[in-house]
Amino acid sequence: MNTVLEIKNLKKYYGNNRGIENVSLKLNKGDIYGFIGPNGAGKSTTIRTIMGLINKTAGNIYFYDKELNSDDITIKEKIGYLPSEINLYDDMTVKEILDYHESFYKKNINKKRKELSKLLKLDENKKIEDLSLGNLKKVGIVLAMMHEPELLILDEPTSGLDPIMQNIFHNILLKEKEKGTTILYSSHVLSEVSSICDKIGFIKDGVIIKEDLMENISKNNYTYLIISSKDIDDIKNDLKLKIKSDNGSEVVFINDIEINVLIKKLSKYKIDKLLIENIPLEDLFNNYYK
Amino acid sequence: MIKREFKVNIKSFIIWTSILIGMFLIVFLIYPYIITDETMTSLDEMMKIFPEEVLKAFNMDIASISTAYGWLKTEGFMFVLIIIGIYSSILGSNIVLKEESDKTIEYLHSLPVKRSQIMTSKIIVAVIYIFAITLILGIFNYVALLLSGDFEHTQYILLSITPLFIGLPLFAINLFISTFLHKTRKTIGISLGLVFLFYILNVLSELSTKVEFLKYFSIYTLADTRNIITNTKLNLTFVIISLSITLIFIILSYVRYKKKELIG
Predict the structure, then answer these.
(1) Are the CB atoms for A76 and B113 separated by under 8 Å?
(2) What is the per-residue pLDDT across B160-180, written as a single tens digit (0 to 9) for each?
């Protein structure tokens, strides 16, 4: 029962148009899974298929060990969903929509609602139609989390939130994770999720192109090797590394040679300048999409 | 969910009910003044000009418009049937689709409710409102008729419930059509178009025996006011057909909605 959500070869076509081609991923209990990809890659389609808003063309979605039936109330009670674009009933106040939400659950969820509203500094007296994008997002977060779901599905949850509020929100997520909540966190910004995710899946053109543990991605063996030398042509031939940039006097290599081996190799040449830098995650992320 | 549906739809209910009540209030207030012996003579002259088929189409061959009740049996009920038909059609096409069109379906669908429950709560509210508009108008006219003169009570009661036999199937048909759409933008045209199409088919079918078959394609045939006026009883076959059409289209709507792509 450790696997909470498993997706196998999920495919969704809108007529002849591709939504997603092949998405497989697995979330274990307490995981925060970063679902990363540029706009139009298929993140929202995957999420909407999980939520049962749209019908899959092929593949399987399992919630725990059973095929997910999005029309099953007992399953729905265990899932929290924050869509990328939040549309609520404009005629209601924040208090009314939260009361309305509460009325659908048998268990008492008022305590959690109050706790979240306080943390996110939510003004419950405002009308939905008067809320800014950020405040609307906060209402969406409370709605998705107030019933303490076992699986939380977040589609671009921080768009519209200021950095302070993003930080508060991430702290809330980390606390939920400690309690065992499993979180699928979709974003198009890797740096946004890198601090809280355990696992990252990169999606491109409807296909998961890479999936790895965050710790492996963070401690990637790639570095930028910046060298300035009169022997640069010999060094290029010797190292046989991919070149990121070359302005004539300075060459930036993408290096995966072990540091001691590298130093040994470079000791043969006269070097004017040598710099070794970690490749930022964002560059690594962009590299996947080239 | 049902409570919220009542609240969301109360405004349009009040507007449509007010339109009907307002129309009949004006008629009941001014009718005694416009119908005098003199105007009746001119009206009778005018009626003679109309072909029998036209008079038949508006029940004017079996009822006289010399009294408010007479007017009610002819033109009055024509308006009631059209307006309640439009109201029911608009309710049918909008009540479920609105959630998708306003994109609130993504939130509603995330709640622990089945799609069938969403559908049921909306159908319950719509049917109650269709009954309520018919009932309120019926009671209003009943009281007004009591105050304005003599009328046949049983005949009137039967007449006043006929809007249900077109309102309910029109609601169900429009509800079913709405399960193929994603936006409410086009529904007003479809709703009005259907009502007028059915109504015109019904009128045409009365005009000539050659086109009488058109009545089989019109929901308005089911509001058999002619039979009530002449025989003071409901045509049970039509009642059963009306309820069957309603039920069939509601079932089809459930089936279709269960599989619908809620694009939003």
Answers:
(1) yes
(2) 999 999 999 999 999 999 999
In 3D space, the residue among A159, A7, A5, A18 whose CA is nearest the CA of residue A82 turns out to be A159
Residue A192, pLDDT score:
79
Nearest to B104 among A55, A89, A104 (CB): A89
Helix (H, G, I), strand (E, B) or coil at B228: helix
Residue type, A245: S
* Mean pLDDT, residues B84-102 taken together: 95
- Give the other-Cβ count within 10 Å of B98's Cβ: 18
* pLDDT attached to residue B231: 83
The answer to whether residue B14 is domain-embedded is: yes
Beta-bridged to residue B167, according to DSSP, are none
| Spatial distance between the Cα atoms of A20 and A8, rounded to a whole number of angstroms | 12
Amino acid B264: pLDDT: 57
Q: Minimal CA–CA distance to B73: which of B223, B232, B225?
A: B225
Contact criterion met (CB < 8 Å) for A87 and B264: yes
Contact across the interface for B259 and A89, Cβ inside 8 Å: no
Question: Do residues A120 and A168 touch, judged by C-beta distance below 8 A?
Answer: yes
For residue A221, pLDDT beyond 70:
no
Specify whether the CB–CB gap between B207 and B57 falls below 8 A. yes
- This prediction has a pTM of 0.84
DSSP 8-state secondary structure symbol assigned to residue B188: H
- pLDDT of A212: 86
CA distance A100 to A47: 24
The mean pLDDT value for B101-114 works out to 94
Strands (E), chain B: none
Strand partners, A183: A32, A152
Asked if residue A98 and residue A210 are part of one domain, the reply reads yes
d(CA B75, CA A168): 67
pLDDT at position B62, please? 65
Tell me the C-alpha distance between B213 and B211, whole Å: 5
Residue B63: both structure tokens together: 């009822």
Strand, coil or helix: A14: strand
Would the ipTM clear 0.90, i.e. be above it?
no
Residue B34 burial (C-beta neighbours within 10 Å; 0-12, 13-18, 19+) = exposed
Domain that holds residue A280: 223-288
Q: Same domain, yes or no, for A203 and A229?
A: no
Same domain, yes or no, for A228 and A182? no
Judgement on whether residues A31 and A48 belong to the same structural domain of the protein: yes
Report the chain B residue with the minimal C-alpha distance to residue A103.
B1
Cβ-Cβ contacts under 8 Å between A and B: the total is: 59
Integer Cα distance of B214 and A226 in angstroms: 86
Give the C-alpha separation, A168 to A176, whole Å: 13
Interface touch B262/A54, C-beta < 8 Å: yes
Q: Evaluate if residue A33 carries a pLDDT over 70.
A: yes
Bridge partners, residue A8, by sequence: A60
